[in-house]
Design brief:
The protein is mainly alpha-helical. It has one domain (2-173). It is built from eight helices and four strands; from the N terminus they run ααββααβαβααα. It has helices at 2-16, 18-32, 76-84, 91-96, 113-121, 134-137, 145-158, 161-173, and strands at residues 36-42, 48-54, 101-103, 130-132. The strands form two sheets. A two-stranded antiparallel ribbon has the order 1-2. It is globular and about 45 Å long. 35% of the residues are buried.
Length: 185
């Protein structure tokens, strides 16, 4: 059922947001000459896939986790995209093609070996990675691999239609769950 919702919602989002998508492509072309950012990520069953986002950083910026990048690498337009989360729109294509879900653990880089190890031990790779998830609405990023993997495992164990809908609603409304997730779980 979740995969069906992913397809319907991502397709609806792409159609509805197509004017915004086109505008962002044009502004991205003017900003960096290359509006899309493609990056290898680790997906379900640890299979690699190519994540698509709108480019927010200068061309040539190191391909590392966002928390490891110098903030001066962000372009002015990229700062706007990040603040408004519009850089995530192209990931709807990843959802439509089955690489991702709307809800799941954020896909990590192949170089994030500590996170991959922690997630593997907890069965996190049993599900598709997502655009949003429990860690995102709780403000937990990839800079704390063990804590992130624990929260991702909670999501995997509790992923239901109710959880899926609740996390989408929390993401869309900008209301996270605060710090209600115990880090020692």
């Amino acid at each position: 059922m979740i995969r069906t919702l992913d397809i319907l919602l991502s397709l609806t989002g792409l159609i509805t947001l197509s004017p915004v998508f086109l505008l962002l492509v044009l502004v991205g072309l003017a900003d960096t000459g290359s509006p899309f950012f493609l990056q290898k990520r680790v997906g379900r069953s640890q299979e690699p896939f190519t994540l698509v986002k709108f480019r927010t950083m200068r061309i040539g910026t190191a391909s590392v986790g966002t928390h490891d990048v110098d903030r001066s690498s962000l372009t002015k337009f990229g700062k706007v995209l990040r603040r408004t989360k519009l850089d995530e729109i192209p990931q709807l294509l990843n959802v439509l093609f089955g690489d991702m879900s709307l809800v799941g653990p954020r896909p990590c880089l192949p170089s994030q070996t500590a996170l991959i190890r922690e997630r593997n031990m907890r069965g996190v790779f049993l599900v598709r990675p997502g655009i949003t998830g429990l860690a995102q609405v709780n403000g937990v990023d990839m800079s704390t691999p063990r804590r992130l993997a624990r929260i991702d495992a909670i999501l995997v164990r509790n992923l239901s239609l109710k959880c899926y809908a609740g996390l989408i609603l929390a993401t869309v409304t900008g209301r996270g769950f605060g710090d209600r997730v115990r880090s020692d779980t």
